[in-house]
């Protein structure tokens, strides 16, 4: 439940508080999938679509969309409803990337694969390589000319 100390003077949930909760939920999801400690390496495309007000109850859903060598992408959706459970609405979403670490030396370790089971999961899985390339470009770890998935997507659009 969103309490007054979570909100701005207008009674809206502060974005930073929501991002913190989303990061925690995404980290739990990634850690369970990897069966190891994980660290957040990026957050992309945070979308604040609808306000969440004081007194609202929120639900955060997280799922691993794809695993790469030592990293996973997690998609988080946020739903809000009033205190009685009515007026449920999708308010926010974001993609988080995590790297799995060994317990002892805290070095990156290989992560289990993801097998999409539904059309929605397949769609998220298919888009993950492109989102990863964009993260790598923005982080200075990949040159745009080497972004094969992004180029393919733009040529098809």
* Mean pLDDT figure: 95
What is the CATH class? Answer: Alpha Beta
Number of helices: 3
What share of the residues lie within helices? 25-40%
Q: What is the name of the CATH topology? A: Thiol Ester Dehydrase, Chain A
Shape: globular
**Hey, roughly how much beta strand do the residues contain?**
25-35%
How many discrete domains? 1
- Strand adjacency order, main sheet: 1-4-3-2
List low-confidence stretches: none
Superfamily at the CATH H level?
Hotdog Thioesterase
Structure explained in plain terms:
By secondary structure, the protein is α+β, with helices and mostly antiparallel strands. The chain has a single domain (4-114), classed as Thiol Ester Dehydrase, Chain A. Helix content is 31%, strand content 30%. The chain has helices at residues 15-34, 119-138, 148-156, and strands spanning 37-48, 57-67, 71-81, 89-101. The protein has a 4-stranded antiparallel sheet. Helix 2 packs across helix 3. The mean pLDDT is 95.
Keywords:
157 residues; 4-stranded antiparallel β-sheet; Thiol Ester Dehydrase, Chain A; globular; alpha+beta; 3 helices
Secondary structure layout:
Blueprint: H1 15-34, E1 37-48, E2 57-67, E3 71-81, E4 89-101, H2 119-138, H3 148-156
Antiparallel strand pairs: 1-4, 2-3, 3-4
Give a concise summary.
The protein is α+β, with helices and mostly antiparallel strands and 157 residues long. It is built from three helices and four strands.
């Amino acid at each position: 439940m969103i309490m007054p100390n979570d909100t701005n003077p207008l009674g809206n949930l502060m974005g930073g508080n929501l991002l913190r909760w989303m990061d925690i939920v995404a980290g739990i999801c990634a850690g369970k999938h990897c069966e190891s400690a994980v660290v957040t390496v990026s957050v992309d495309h945070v979308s604040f679509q609808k306000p969440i007000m004081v007194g609202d109850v929120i639900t955060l859903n997280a799922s691993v969309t794809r695993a790469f060598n030592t990293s996973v992408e997690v998609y988080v959706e946020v739903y809000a409803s009033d205190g009685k459970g009515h007026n449920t609405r999708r308010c926010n979403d974001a993609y988080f990337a995590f790297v799995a670490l060994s317990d002892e030396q805290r070095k990156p370790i290989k992560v289990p694969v993801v097998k999409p089971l539904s059309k929605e999961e397949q769609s998220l899985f298919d888009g993950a390589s492109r989102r990863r390339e964009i993260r790598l470009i923005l982080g200075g770890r990949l040159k745009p000319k080497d972004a094969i998935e992004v180029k393919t997507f733009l040529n098809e659009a």
